[in-house]
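Help needed: design a sequence for this.
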């Protein structure tokens, strides 16, 4: 789409493609959400969007992406890629920032369809958006946060070299729950071979950055 250059933005890795989703992509991503993202009785998200029936999860997934598209501005943006593995959409990986031109700091968030977990995909897709943040957008820091019982997310974060950045107490479905915050500085980031960003130049003005 000429007037929406993000539609051409993608990142490729040795196993994955992360791309800005089409409507058909969102439909398939909604199917992954409907199939399930985590085990029953566990809530890894600050906003409990998965706490509903399969149709509700699919609809919420699509509405979230529509909302992020509509609200995007240089002062506050969220780019949420679909993650493609072996020709199938398996999850989503996001990168977001507020006042990026000043802070040079971006946060990440993601989820994988439950049947695709435990295959190293989560680590590789996080590496992909870190490559976008540091090599593509010139970030100085990447940050992330996860509940203390979200062991898979915490393992990815620690594997990639983030340092602890404090804790926050939340109300999670009526009960207190602690999240751990983490920060990765540019100088602690290790660039991985085989990661490439495609069609970023035309998107830079949407982030307030020069081409």
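Sure. Designed sequence:
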């Amino acid at each position: 789409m000429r007037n929406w250059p993000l539609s051409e933005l993608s990142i490729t890795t040795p196993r994955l493609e992360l791309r800005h989703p089409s409507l058909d992509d969102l439909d398939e991503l909604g199917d992954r959400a409907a199939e399930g993202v985590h085990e029953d009785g566990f809530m890894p998200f600050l906003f409990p969007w998965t706490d509903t029936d399969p149709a509700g999860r699919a609809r919420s997934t699509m509405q979230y992406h529509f909302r992020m598209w509509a609200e995007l501005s240089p002062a506050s943006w969220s780019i949420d890629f679909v993650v493609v593995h072996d020709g199938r959409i398996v999850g989503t990986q996001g990168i977001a920032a507020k006042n990026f031109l000043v802070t040079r700091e971006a946060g990440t968030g993601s989820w994988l369809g439950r049947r695709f977990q435990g295959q190293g995909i989560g680590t590789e897709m996080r590496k992909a958006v870190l490559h976008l943040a540091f090599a593509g957008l010139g970030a100085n820091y990447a940050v992330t946060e996860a509940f203390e019982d979200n062991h898979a997310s915490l393992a990815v974060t620690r594997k990639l070299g983030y340092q602890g950045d404090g804790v926050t107490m939340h109300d999670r479905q009526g009960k207190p729950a602690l999240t751990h915050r983490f920060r990765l500085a540019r100088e602690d980031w290790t660039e991985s071979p085989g990661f490439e960003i495609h069609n970023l130049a035309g998107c830079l003005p949407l982030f307030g950055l020069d081409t």
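DSSP finds five helices and nine strands in the chain.
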